[in-house]
Amino acid sequence: MKTFLSTLALLSATSLGWAADVTPYSAVAAPEWTALFDAPYGVNDGWSGADGVYTIPMNGDERFGSGGATKTLILFSDSFVGGTHPDGSRIGGTVMVNNTSAMLSGATPTPSALQFNVRRDAAGKAISMVVPTQAGQWYWPGDALVWKGKVRMFAARMATGDGGDFNFKQVGVDLLTAPASDDAPFLGSYNRLKLPLFAPRNGQLGEIAFGIATMPLTVQAGAPNPDGFLYVYGVRSDDFNKKLLVARVKPDQMTKPGSYRFWNGTAWVSDINDSAPVANRMGAEISVTPLADGRFLVVHQLDTLSGTVVVRYGASPVGPFGKPIPVWLCPEDNLTPDTFVYGAKAHPHLSAPGELLISYHVNTFDFWENFSAGGKDIYRPRFIKLPL
Questions:
Q1: Residue 8 lies in a domain
Q2: What's the domain count of the chain?
Q3: CATH of residue 77
Q4: Per-residue pLDDT reduced to its tens digit, 86-101
Q5: 226 by DSSP, 3-state: which?
Q6: Is residue 5 part of a domain?
Q7: Is the CB of residue 128 less than 8 Å from the CB of residue 139?
Q8: In the record, which residues are listed under signal peptide (predicted)?
């Protein structure tokens, strides 16, 4: 019966000109990519773990498997800087900064091809790579792209929250711009622009924040069916359920705040509060990738914090999107009693033929667990490969 149903699904997909859906739980570990972000003592400029992990091809080509022809900028959020001991504990004086980066040459997970980049003050102390102008706030990088010689990053502007395990809140979205010609973009000069891509909670409706994923459907990005728009994805954080939202803009108008339009379920409108959810049970970070067969593949962690990585297919950049298909159960969810996983997203340009490279984050509710023996193996990215 299972074989019959699988054949029927394949025939149905083929009749529509679509490839078959991925097989549930078919992803496999990618230890060579996970090992790339291991941090032995005394190397990596002291970088020893982070989350975020947005990968941006510096030539702007986002096609599957195109990464071998370019460098890749990797953007991290909260990052440990300070190195580790041979037993995996972090050395004294280790600090956490809100963002760092790395640059990878080519598309193979070779340690010698990866350069971590940490901004330091005049005294040599690690500091955040990018910071807002507002006192007491910080940036967590969102997705980014290279367009006409500039790196454009959608950054979440954050502030301290009201307590609890997650003592932070988002207060805005800024577009950060740096020259793509820099050896380490954003480590040098950059500028900031406030965008109308954030709206606070409105009664029973949660806050709205865009910038967690970008998808340039352009000729320059190598999109299979380009329409000339940059799609910028976000979520509405309703109680216990993050719901997917879609905005779009012409890439040349990214720096014009009034040019962004929001999908309301039937049309593109100018009011962010009219944004209509197109899928639910999202993560705080996702990816959306155009496929050669005309569909769009969303990768995310199911329900934000869970051990399940899922994908779902959409018929257009705004859906409709199908049900989530589980592809991987993260073993690190039970690494210790306090660990949790989140933030799954895909990296198509770094993927090998016939598969999709996916990363996710591991963290712990016990912050000081990161400093214990073996602690460096908690807070750093993991990678899997999904056959397509």
A1: no
A2: 1
A3: 2.115.10.20
A4: 888 988 889 999 999 9
A5: coil
A6: no
A7: yes
A8: 1-19
